[in-house]
Automatic annotation (TrEMBL):
Localization: Membrane
PANTHER family: BAND 7 PROTEIN-RELATED, STOMATIN-LIKE PROTEIN 3
Name this polypeptide is given: Stomatin-like 3
Annotated family: Belongs to the band 7/mec-2 family.
Chief subcellular location: membrane
CC annotations in GO: plasma membrane
Band domain: residues covered: 1-132
Amino acid sequence: GLVLILPCTDTFIKVDLRTVTCNIPPQEILTKDAITAQVDGVVYYRIHSAVSAVANVTDVHLATFLLAQTTLRNVLGTQSLAQLLAGHEEVAHSIQAVLNSATEQWGIKVARVEIKDVRIPVAMQRAMAAEAEAAREARAKIVAAEGEMNASKALKQASVVLAESPAGLQLRYLQTLATLAAENNSTIVFPLPINMLE
């Protein structure tokens, strides 16, 4: 509509009420488990009260940008690297809640916060890869040891059964000879009676 402004007493300030995208540059942070990382993100916000945005803060966009930077550093400093890498959504929601509570009096509504990228030093990446490989090898050794233990229990039970039946031992001996004859035809096997072994 038509707005009348008195030149000496009134001031006209145009306020954009559309959603603004604020790109947070990479921030150097120290996680809770003392690992340095560079994290950048994006904040989407809009002005819902033009009077508050003009009257309560000098430059609402600069203030929101600086607050987003410091909030990103503060919130991520309370997280471990595993939480940061696995829980992007939870971290983004906590940053959004902190920003909303701080910018509400400025007439700002933060619509969304996204963490774009988490970069860790190359040496730390190598150390984490070596740690993961060692953990996988340890799990493989545990599985192999459990298999050996189960096999030894089965052999013990089989030996108890074969000890109770001498004919069963003779049959197992002949079965082993048949298996050898099928696999290696060039092998010559001289069967000995089990009684001679006793």
